[in-house]
Records
---
Amino acid sequence: MFLQDSGSPLMEQLSFFHDHALLILVIITVLVGQLLFSLFFNKYTHRFLLEGQTIEMIWTILPAVTLIFIALPSLRLIYILDEINNPILSIKSIGHQWYWSYEYSDFKNIEFDSYMIPINELKSFNFRLLDVDNRMVIPFESQIRLLVTSTDVIHSWTIPALGVKIDATPGRLNQVSFSTNRSGLFFGQCSEICGANHSFMPIVIESISSKYFINWISKMIEI
């Protein structure tokens, strides 16, 4: 209930799987609750009941079938999340204590750091503890490859609305592929406890059209 609106095809699939699993849980809860309710309030007895092979087969097979109905969509989703679909843009994100830096190596290696905006510098349109001075800008409806690493401790680059969570590990380069299906701002945070200021290294993605993205790249190259 009350999940964020999906901002990417990956998050849509995750939401569908969440609803599927939740429906199965509701069915199990209602069934078990009804059985317990009937056990508490009836006075049936069977002094000569020693075995019940039929009911034992039923309560062995039914949970196994239920697990299959959960496992198959889950396995499908795992492979979808790991798939890299011919990205048109590669961005490198580097975790530091306690900020992120980004490199657009496809465009003359544009580099910039992204710090949380301090509370005393917030504008009326900024979000407290979530907004940054330099956002990661991407074109929507385009496949993006994100390469993630860290310079000090383990961080985790996480954007809930896009269904993306990937660890930034020192000495290791991890990659994830995603795309956004609409323009807008998508907020995230480091989800790995990485030190004293773990809560103060937010992530902001600004998803814009390809035309505006090219203009933004041109301005960054001039700078």
Note: Residues 89-222 form a domain with the Immunoglobulin-like fold (CATH 2.60.40.420).
---
Amino acid sequence: HKEGRAISVGLFRNVFKSKTREPVPKQWRRIFFDHINAGIIGPFYGSMPFHYATAHNKIHHRWHNDVGDVHTNMDVDRTVPSSFVLWIPRFVAYWTGVTPLLLFWKRKEYRLFKDLSYGMAYYCTLSFLVWYNTDTFFYWAYWLYPVLEAASFLGGIAYMWHAFSDESDPSNQYVNSVTIL
């Protein structure tokens, strides 16, 4: 959930050593690999830098698909296919960082707002540079398509993930966390 941090740090735990064989502090390793994944690798997979660390962890995991979650699906009738068509724009706004940014501002969580803003500004700047310096095919195939693919694929997963809710207690985490595939 922290954009692959555990995997990247685990695989490259002993890569950075000083001449005295003292390991580089964990904080610097974490920052280095988080930024490599979030800023360089992640965008080619349709991921907004720092999105999971802020929006996913601090909104979705805090509110557990309840009404405070910006991409909740509690109000969606999953027995009607058109509900997915109505819900997917909500997920796209979440995935691109728009609705989490607005929620952080509304809740006065300015540190999270700043972190996500930096990630979005970095992504938009990089998007412009990729568009400006490459041909149209590369931009669409390797930059824009992964965002659309990730939003639709992960949107479909998120649509079904919290498939059940208790009408008498909609915030019951034990019921709305059940997933049956």
Note: The first helix runs from residue 5 to 11.
